[in-house]
Design goal:
By secondary structure, this protein is α+β, with helices and mostly antiparallel strands. Helices cover 45% and strands 15% of the residues. The chain is built from 10 helices and 9 strands. The strands form 3 sheets. Strands 6-7-9-8 form a 4-stranded mixed β-sheet. A 3-stranded antiparallel β-sheet has the order 1-3-2. Strands 4-5 form a two-stranded antiparallel sheet. Helix 1 crosses helix 3, helix 6 packs across helix 8 and helix 6 crosses helix 9. It is elongated. It starts with a helix and ends with a helix. The mean pLDDT is 95.
Length: 234
């Protein structure tokens, strides 16, 4: 069997419209049987023949064809490829909307993922950002909270009642080891961490976030006391 036949046979194992990350596929399945140059040449020939489609640099899919032509992967399928089951998570306005913090809808879906082979990548309106983590539910919770707090003052039409409920739920299940894992891989402003400390302290949740902050600095951010006043004005 030739190298081209091996590549084609391997590609055929993928369901239609499932994203194929070329470098990952080569490293995990084909590096011992096909030369790298020959591999990428085979992908190029398959694209010309119409048996494979390139959706972004280094990313392909076997086309699903209907009577109207090729049906490309939907945004939902793209997001799933980079998030499920524990590969990543959605952030930004799509997250805020799903949490019912706002009714605003995102034009671009933002995703943090361990599957992105470069720093950032845009595929059909899905902005992918590399962040090498094992996305357990606890890790996702921390990322979601930090992302909301980092962008709190820029979230349009913020629902303060829903935000308070979100904070309560997070405080009840706060996992500091997950917070530390996230902080090792993803950068957040000091005022964001201080904002989180204020929330945890407000709900009497033990934490050691002080070690990430300076005792000499005053961090400007909303407080839970002020948020309650905004949500329940007298």
């Amino acid at each position: 069997m030739t190298g081209a036949q091996i590549v084609a046979q391997t590609i055929e194992l993928f369901p239609e419209n499932e994203l194929i990350l070329a470098s990952k596929l080569y490293t995990e399945r084909l590096s011992n049987t096909v030369g790298e140059d020959a591999y990428y040449q085979s992908l190029g020939r398959m694209c010309k023949a119409g048996t494979l489609c390139r959706i972004a640099k280094g990313t392909y899919y076997r086309p699903k064809i209907c009577k109207y032509g090729i049906v490309p992967p939907s945004q939902k399928e793209i997001v799933a490829a980079f998030t499920e089951p524990d590969k990543g998570t959605v952030v930004g306005y799509s997250l805020y909307n799903s949490l019912k913090l706002t009714t605003q809808v995102a034009k671009t879906i933002e995703v943090l993922s361990s599957e992105v082979e470069q720093q950032t990548k845009n595929i059909s309106g899905v902005l992918l950002k590399s962040c090498d983590l094992h996305y357990t539910p606890e890790v996702k919770d921390v990322i979601h909270m930090l992302d909301v707090l980092q962008n709190f003052e820029n979230i349009q039409d913020l629902n303060y009642h829903q935000f308070i409920s979100f904070c309560k739920n997070f405080a009840n299940s706060y996992d500091e080891s997950s917070f530390e894992r996230v902080l090792q891989k993803q950068r957040y402003q000091k005022k964001t961490i201080s904002f989180l400390r204020n929330i945890l302290d407000y709900y009497d949740v033990e934490n050691s976030l002080n070690k990430h902050l300076s005792a000499l600095s005053e961090y400007r951010h909303p407080t839970m006391e002020g948020i309650y006043e905004s949500a329940y004005p007298s």
